[in-house]
Amino acid sequence: DLPALRYQPLNLRVIELHFLSVYFFSGLSDTMADEETGEYHATDSGASKTYPMQCGALKKNGYVCIKGRPCKIVDYSTSKTGKHGHAKAHIVGIDIFTSKKLEELCPTTHNMDVPNVSRTEYELVDINDEGYCELMVGDSGETKADLTLPNGEVGDTIKKNFDNGAVVIVSVISAMGEEAIVGSKVDGKAE
């Protein structure tokens, strides 16, 4: 039987409603099992693809998301506006995967998303006919073959060194669920 809430002060009603919701819904399970099959659903580690940073704290050669794309900042300038206006930052960035130039104008007090960017090195095992690279993951001998050889000078250098029989270590950059080969080393020398 639910108690009457009509004549109680508001703060007591809120506490009592919270108690009632905890009482009635505490028996529900927090697991993510499918009711029909009983299978559990896996999720990722929970790490965010981006984090917020105040626009005024961004620096040249850092990273920022412009129009939803991860970019490396190549030019950053600030300007004061009128008497009561806010300082604005003009940010020019290059998309780290497509190399397209993107620009953003943002008040320096506002937050912008900054991508979590990581760089990993893998040993190149093979390049197939379609241009996909087979890369060795760690010392376990496992391989991954989901990245293509990049176009341009970087890809040409990797292919030439691999065809000459050299041990090629490729550098892979990853951000916001995307990965790409961005450089290489041969016998410890950067290419």
From TrEMBL:
Q: Any idea where this protein resides?
A: Cytoplasm
Query: Which Pfam families does the UniProt record give?
Result: eIF-5a, IF5A-like_N
Q: What is its main location?
A: cytoplasm
Per its UniProt entry, which superkingdom is the organism in?
Eukaryota
Cite the GO molecular-function annotations of the record.
Answer: ribosome binding; RNA binding; translation elongation factor activity
Entry keyword set? Cytoplasm, Elongation factor, Hypusine, Protein biosynthesis, RNA-binding
Q: Which PROSITE patterns match?
A: IF5A_HYPUSINE (PS00302)
Q: Provide the GO biological process annotations.
A: positive regulation of translational elongation; positive regulation of translational termination
One GO term of the cellular component aspect? Answer: cytoplasm
Ranges where the Translation initiation factor 5A C-terminal domain occurs: 116-185
SMART domains attached to this UniProt entry: eIF-5a
Query: What is the similarity comment for this entry?
Result: Belongs to the eIF-5A family.
Query: What name appears for this protein in its UniProt entry?
Result: Translation initiation factor 5A C-terminal domain-containing protein
Q: Which organism is it from?
A: Eutreptiella gymnastica
